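DM between two lab members

TW: hey, do you still have the DUF6090 family protein entry open?
JB: yeah, one sec
JB: this one, 250 aa:
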Amino acid sequence: MKFFRKIRQEFLFKGKTLKYLKYALGEIILVVIGILIALQINNWNEDKQLKQEELKTLKSLQESIKINKGELATTLNAQIDRNQSLQEVLFSEIKNRPVRQLDSLITANVGNHTFDPSTGIYNAMINSGKIELISNETIKNRISKLYDQVRDYQESEDEITDYTKAHLEPYFIDNYFIEPAVLVQLRDRTPEETKKDREFYGKVFSSTTVKNMYILLLYKMGEVIKKGQKLLAEYNSLVEELETELADFS
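TW: and the structure you got?
JB:
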């Protein structure tokens, strides 16, 4: 700066006003260029930091979705098994099956299985505004719709749980007479107990009340399984899209 100041002073001292003005203008242009370069570097650094934050966000989101996908697959398989057990009671000849199979069958009939996904990362993204870091609008929109789809699926699960607790569980509490030690296989049945329990199962599974409950439950289970399969397909597709998006960062 002292060097530039000395040059300006020499121009003024020698009366070279025009050269002074040209030089001053050139100096201003240099300063402006320097400022623009500094701003560009600053913007580049900010963009780099944002990309790093976006990368971290996408990785966290992908990991969370993978975990939830595994949980959903487990839950859905259990629901399919329960649905199968209901169909066996309604549409198969089961009276001559081993009593142990009938124990398992009736236990599967009343067993509830629900999906409890981890939403901590998603909620943190929404609350902190980090979801806006995702530059891919398609992924951003799919994430938002995914959690709406999860809530819809859970509402159908809750309907089944409520129905089971309101109807099936009270019925079996009032009418189920199998010895607990036998049911949990702490001991074998006696021949008399085997005969008695087989008669009990025959009566229960032929009951119009039970059949009507199972038919309605079977319908509800069919709905939740369809939603679950659709949700699982969306999880799989979204994981693949995130993997493609993350590959673009490397």
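TW: got it. The mean pLDDT is 85. Helices lie at 2-13, 17-91, 99-110, 120-128, 137-175, 180-183, 191-205, 208-247.
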